[in-house]
Amino acid sequence: MGPQDLVFFALVGLAVWLLLIRPQRARAKSMQQMRAGMTVGSRVMTTAGLHATVTALEDETVVLEIADGVRATFATAAVVRVLTPAVPEQAAPPAD
User: Fold this and answer.
1) pTM, whole model, 2 decimals?
2) Would you call 44 exposed, middle or buried from its count of C-beta atoms within 10 A (0-12, 13-18, 19+)?
3) d(CA 65, CA 73)
4) What is the pLDDT of residues 40-68, one digit of tens each?
5) How many domains does the chain have?
6) How far apart are CA 59 and CA 22, in angstroms?
7) Residue 33: which CATH number?
8) Which residues constitute the domain of residue 22?
9) Residues 51-57: contacts with CB within 8 Å, 24+ apart?
């Protein structure tokens, strides 16, 4: 093997890293940040396209309210998008 072959293999390795590994790491990091920002009350979308409200969070699972009184437990990894962050409840205006 000559120096040209080594340069060729180095360039192929660099191309694989730039085109495959680096973008995947960036996607994984953004998904991890998105899931870390998910709180109770957030509207989310699952991998199946189901829109729901987060009612409870655990380490590996999330409980989603699909409709009034209808709750289902999903793996946290099934949540692909936070549609709206949780809105804190506002206190009632003071009575005069």
Assistant:
1) 0.63
2) buried
3) 9
4) 999 999 999 999 999 999 888 999 999 99
5) 1
6) 27
7) 2.30.30
8) 3-84
9) 51/83, 54/86
